[in-house]
């Protein structure tokens, strides 16, 4: 008997034993290692399902990645060291010395972005300390805020204690919050002096 002679047949009794014996000595055809430079963590090879999963850092361009493949068999196609577009799963097929084949479905994915923990940066328009005379009119110059992830962020005033009718040190407090909830706060000082 040969393994090919069993193809398409129900195997029982002695023929089953023959089939198992032949299967146990079939030339190997499997991927033993599949790595990509700068990948995140270890490659997951599911030999039962013939699937391979690789995770890449957030932001990785999946269109031109070059895997290094170790395998048991005569060849693997696509070959090791050949750049591939992994935006969709790619099938790699291992061929044994007996010309039998085993396909593997390889999935490469980029990790999600890391959590945003950085607050926006508030920039005051004009001076951080403004000096006025009693009776002057205070016009708030305003402020702007930029976040590394969200870009421009709205600025609100949470406190404005300025009273130009009486001398003293006053403040205007500006706040900004990005979409991740990171808060930022900057204060402008307004000094009101007695008229000379």
Q: Indicate the low-confidence ranges by residue numbers.
A: none
Question: Helical region count?
Answer: 1
Overall mean pLDDT stands at 90
Question: Helix amount, in percent?
Answer: under 10%
Compute the gyration radius: what is it?
34 Å
What pattern of helices and strands is seen along the backbone?
HEEEEEEEEEEEEEE
Topology:
Elements: H1 13-24, E1 30-36, E2 44-46, E3 51-56, E4 67-72, E5 75-77, E6 90-95, E7 101-110, E8 121-124, E9 129-133, E10 143-147, E11 151-153, E12 156-160, E13 168-177, E14 183-193
Parallel strand pairs: 3-7, 9-14
Antiparallel strand pairs: 1-4, 2-3, 5-6, 6-7, 8-10, 10-11, 12-13, 13-14
Describe the structure.
By secondary structure, the chain is mainly beta. It has one helix spanning 13-24; strands at 30-36, 44-46, 51-56, 67-72, 75-77, 90-95, 101-110, 121-124, 129-133, 143-147, 151-153, 156-160, 168-177, 183-193. The radius of gyration is 34 Å and the shape is rod-shaped. 17% of the residues are buried.
């Amino acid at each position: 008997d040969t393994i090919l002679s069993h193809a398409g047949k129900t195997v029982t009794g002695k023929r089953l034993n023959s089939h198992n014996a032949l299967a146990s000595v079939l030339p190997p055809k499997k991927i033993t290692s599949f790595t990509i430079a700068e990948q995140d963590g270890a490659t997951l090879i599911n030999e039962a399902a013939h699937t391979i999963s690789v995770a890449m850092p957030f932001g990785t361009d999946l269109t031109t990645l070059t895997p290094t493949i170790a395998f048991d068999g005569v060849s693997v196609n696509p070959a090791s060291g050949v750049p591939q577009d992994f935006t969709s799963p790619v099938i790699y097929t291992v061929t044994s010395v007996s010309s039998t084949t085993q396909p593997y479905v390889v999935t490469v994915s980029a990790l999600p972005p890391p959590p945003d923990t950085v607050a926006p940066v508030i920039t005051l328009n004009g001076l951080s300390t403004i000096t006025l005379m009693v009776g002057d009119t205070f016009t708030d110059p305003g402020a702007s805020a930029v976040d590394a992830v969200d870009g421009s962020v709205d600025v609100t005033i949470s406190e404005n204690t300025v009273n130009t009718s009486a001398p003293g040190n006053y403040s205007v407090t500006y706040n900004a919050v990005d979409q991740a909830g990171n808060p930022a706060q900057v204060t402008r000082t307004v000094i009101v002096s007695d008229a000379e």
